[in-house]
Amino acid sequence: MERIFNFSAGPSMLPVEVLETAAREMLNWHGTGMGIIEMSHRSKPFDSMHNKTIADLKELLHIPDNFKILMMHGGGTLQFACVALNLLGDKTKANYLITGAWSEKAAQEGAKYCTVNTVATGKTSNFTTVPDPATWNVDPEGAYFHYCANETIHGLEFDLTEEMLAKIGDLPIVADMSSNFLSKTIDFTKHAVVYAGAQKNAGPAGVAFVIVREDLLGKSLKIIPSLMDWKTTADNNSLYNTPPCFPIYMCGLYFDYMRRNGGLEAFIEIARQKSTLLYNTFAESNGYYTNPVNENFRSKMNVPFLIKGGNEAIEKKFLNEAEKVGLSTLAGHRSVGGLRASIYNGMPMEGVVKLVEFMKAFQTNNP
Q: Can you give the residue ranges of the Aminotransferase class V domain (predicted)?
């Protein structure tokens, strides 16, 4: 069977070249006579792979020397608790901007350890826009300001504007970038912590990346489990215990692939082209396909859409016919319905072109 185009929100498609390299090396990594998946994480061969993965990510994102790169278990979701447990220190409050399901979940987890101040919420708009910064209520006594840079379910993405930054003030800024990691530049002069699960834009499920400014390490609460402590992880180069070895290796292959194919800048441009093609298709459909998100905050990674205003019968037919031609996992999240195309770095332009061609033909055949 031919490879399909998988539009899943995660785990997602990986570049074929990365998968082929992993297949070749499965039984014999660089002449060691065994694969990474079998290798001791205390061995010199593993150590070389591990350190190259970190170095390549640092190069891709231009991460400053005063930040530590951590590779941790538990995905992005475990970091919801890690953020509070590592950053609260002697403070009892933290600020959360709620722009969708994932920032809401982060706030709910944070509330187990501190008093959460909701800076603003987009819930009244069904998370289709970012609340006006003029309405934000930031508590300067909070330990940090947390936001989600790309809401995977609702397809909302944004950068912090100067007006937003003025509202936040001097608070450490924490960003969940799980679903737009490695698809945009990150201003590390403004961010104190960036975290992301790998399974969307960086590799397979099983590892989360935490990029944390060094001066914030060592402030964790006493109740924190050792494996969740960023300082413990940093002091041990993410090798405090057996790490998620194979996911780290796969991420390393992905980073190397990106470096050899134009670096971050090239993938930013490809993401722009892919998302523009999809959004233009909506605009040219005369309302047949619609996206509910404010045009200023539309995601380049996760593109939700409705057919004929949310006609469930037509959408079901669309999904069934799309699967038959190799366009897979286009259903929207169960909490919002509709359809969604996730077009991460591993999704080639050919996949988006095929989807758009299918959409146009489907509209013609199902007016």
A: 4-354
Q: Is 132 a catalytic residue?
A: no
200 is catalytic: yes
CATH number of the domain located at residue range(s) 17-260 in this protein: 3.40.640.10
Q: What is 5-14+262-365's CATH number?
A: 3.90.1150.10
Domain ranges in the chain with CATH number 3.90.1150.10:
5-14+262-365
> Is 176 known to be catalytic?
yes
298: nearest Cα among 112, 185, 156: 156
The single residue of 68, 167, 200, 231 carrying the catalytic annotation is 200
* Residue corresponding to tokens 């930013």: 268
User: Dihedral, CA atoms, 305, 103, 73, 346, nearest 10 degrees?
Assistant: 30
| Per-residue pLDDT tens over the stretch 168-197 | 999 999 999 999 999 999 999 999 999 999
C-beta separation of 79 from 204 below 8 A: no
| Active-site pick, 68, 136, 167, 176 | 176
Which of 56, 68, 102, 274 is the catalytic position? 102
Q: Taking the model in full, what pTM does it have?
A: 0.97
